[in-house]
Amino acid sequence: MLTIDDVVLPPKLFLGQVLVEVITSGICGAQINEIDAIKGPDKFLPHLLGHEGFGQVLGIGPGVTTVLPGDFVIMHWRPGAGIQALPAVYTWRGKKLNAGWVTTLNHHSVVSENRITKIEPRNHDKNVLPLLGCALTTALGVLKNDAKVDSSDSLLILGSGGVGLALIKVARFLKIQNIVVVDISDKKLKYALNLGATNVVKFINKDHSITELSKIFQKSLPSVAIDTTGNTDAIEICYEISAEDARVILVGVPKIDSRAKIYTLPLHFGKILKGSHGGGSKPEIEIPVLLDLISRGELNFDDYPIQTFKADRINEAIENLRNGVTGRMIIDFSPLSL
Known about the structure:
Blueprint: E1 17-27, H1 29-36, E2 53-60, E3 72-75, E4 90-92, E5 95-97, E6 108-112, E7 116-119, H2 135-146, E8 154-158, H3 162-173, E9 178-183, H4 186-195, E10 199-202, H5 206-217, E11 224-227, H6 232-241, E12 247-250, E13 272-275, H7 283-295, E14 306-310, H8 314-322, E15 328-332
Parallel strand pairs: 8-9, 8-11, 9-10, 11-12, 12-13, 14-15
Antiparallel strand pairs: 1-2, 1-6, 1-15, 2-3, 3-7, 4-5
């Protein structure tokens, strides 16, 4: 459970630092991973959390050139344009409180210039905008940069959480016709179909999933398989049921004590197995492109499941995500509407 409390901001902004008033923030599976320490003990505790958000600039430190006070920005964990500043150091209960280059689950946040991208103030949904900081840029990057898809590809997605559903949306925009999704949740699979998946399989166990996927794909196995879960069975399914020359992309991160087992011979004959780091996205390029597509209605998120919570209910939002509630949990710090 997260502690909700007042913290003291750093007394001044240093080179490349920007003070942002956070308006809305998404909660990603990465925050669950941090809370559960799936990569091992967290040596930076106590620290602030959050890496995708929407806010307004209140102040800038020396050297900052990409934003001015008053600008609206998307906050993101992938480095973009500008200075990579030293992480801010806050004070909490008289002691040091750590933060990275960006944190978004605090109402006021000192972030590195290269972790924010300016956007124009239009009539955007403030609860969709945080998705540009991670889920959407990751989805676009995974498909375009990691998997290098085109409209002739067939796509298998393991997991229909926030990123999985964003992958479906972006894949449909990229004209991919055959999209099959596997998930443990009937409700999530229903959303996957509503957002554009052509077939779905409920995960019962690995063997059952492979049998059902074999029936769907028959001899035309998927050319691209993406795991968003970090579950080792899911990783093995992606690898084993995809085509001989498939691109298998791993977005989810397994727990520190989990190991997937694969037969490596296909890697010598054209199959690609790759771990993704946010899809290699470049926020300063992709955020304006995605926002323009949303503005023109070419990407529509009216049917994307979002639940909004005030900051004092953040632990409820985290439990929803942990328990498999569909879609993105959004923390709303302000009544501001654009």
